[in-house]
Design brief:
It contains 3 helices and no strands. With 60 residues, it is mainly α. The chain has one domain.
Length: 60
């Protein structure tokens, strides 16, 4: 569940930048959103790999 908390924390940390970008057209916030979304993608891929490895190594 720690990994899930990491995902939640990352998404919540981006909330302010999403608001600044979409509501105030702050371009720097858009850059931070893009970086955060890339970090989220990387984290999601790591979690997918962990789940797959655990699934494959755990006997049914």
């Amino acid at each position: 569940m720690a990994r899930f908390d990491e995902v939640k924390n990352l998404v919540m940390s981006l909330e302010g930048d999403f608001e600044k970008f979409y509501e105030k057209n702050n371009q720097a916030a858009g850059t931070r959103v893009r970086k955060g979304m890339q970090d989220l993608k990387t984290l999601a891929q790591e979690i997918r790999s962990e789940v797959q490895n655990t699934k494959n190594t755990t006997p049914s």
